Amino acid sequence: MINRTNVRTRVAQTLFAFYTEGDKTPLTAKKDLLRSFSDTYSLYMLLLDYVNELTRYAEDQIVQSRVRAKATHVNYQPNMRFVENAFAKQVFENRTLRNYVEQEKLTWDMGMLAVEDVYRKLQDAPFYKEYLALPETNYEEDKKIWRKIFTDLLIGNENFYIALEELELALDAVNWTIDADYIISFVVKTIKRFKEEEGANQALLPMFDNEQEVEFATQLLQVTIDHHDEYADMINAHLKNWDASRIALMDRILLTIALAEIINFPDIALEVSFNEYIELAKEYSSDKSYIFVNGILTEIIRELKNKNQLLKAIQLKR
Q: CA 137, CA 129: separation in Å to the nearest integer?
C-alpha cells in the first residue's frame, strides 16, 4: 500500500520536524518515520472498519424506529437490505482486520460525527434509494454500494474530516487528516478485490508494496541527515539568482533529500528522482517552489555530471 512516492513524502515531513523542533535526534527521527508508516496503515484499517460502524449505526436506527413504532402502534416494516449487506458481513468477519483493530485498540467512539453525518446523507443519496429498490441484490451489488459510499459520501465531507481529526488526537496518530483521501482510494481498491468465496480470510493490502520500501525509507532519512551540511553547501553555491533569506525551509529539505537520493541510490533512475521531488515541491511548498527546486537541481546535476561524480545510467534532459 505504501509506495515509494509516499515514502519520500514521509521522509520530507519527518525531516521538517527534525530541523524545526530542535529536540530530535537521528534515532528519534527514524522512530518518527516508522511510526508515520504505522499510523498510515492504521488509518487504512480504521477506514475499512468504517463499514462495520456505519452498518451498526444503521441497524441501531432501525431498532429505535421499531421501538417508537411499537409505542405508537404504527406498522413499521423496515428495509433490511443495507444492514444485511453480504459484503459488510464479510468485512466484519475478516480475521486480519479484527485482529489489527483489537491489537491497536482502534475505535470510532470519538468519531461518531462521521458516522451520523454520512448516514443522514446516505438516506438522501439516489444510489442508496436505487439499491433498496432493487428487486433482488447480489454480492457484487453489495460491494458496489460501499464503493459509492466511500467515493461519494466520504471524500470532500467536512464533518468526516473533523471527526478524523478528533480521532487522530484521541488515538495519538499523525497525518490522518492529510492522508484521508489518499487512504480512501486504497480502501476502494480493497473493496474491489474482495471475493465472496474468500470469506473471513480475504487478504487485505499489506503495509508496504514490497519489503525494500522500509529499507529505502530509513536509508534515505539517514543519508540525508549524515550529509546535510555537504548538500547544503552544494545548494548554497547555486543560489546566485535567488534570495537565500526567502527560500522556504521545505524547499531546502526537498533539495537535500533529492540530492541524497540522486547521489547515493544509483539504481533509481535520475529522471524518476528528479520528477518526484518537483512534484513534492508542488504539493507541499509554495506556489513557485517547484520552479526553484527544478532550477537548483538542474544546475547541481549538470555540475556533478561534468565532474563525473554522478553514477546514473539515464541522462537528464533539460
A: 13
Residue from 55, 53, 6 nearest 33 by CA: 6
Non-local CB neighbours of 105 within 8 Å, separated by 6+ positions: 171
Nearest 5°: phi and psi at 199?
55, -135
Question: Among candidates 2, 20, 4, 6, which has minimal Cα distance to 250?
Answer: 20
pTM, two decimals, is: 0.90
**123, three cell numbers:** 438516506
Distance CA 18, CA 36 (A): 14
Neighbouring C-beta atoms of residue 213, cutoff 10 Å: 18
Cell digits of residue 227:
550529509
Digit-coded pLDDT (tens) for 97-153:
999 999 999 999 999 999 999 999 999 999 999 999 999 999 999 999 999 999 999
| Start-end of H helices in the chain | 4-21, 26-71, 86-93, 95-104, 112-124, 126-133, 139-148, 158-170, 176-193, 212-226, 228-236, 249-264, 270-284, 289-306
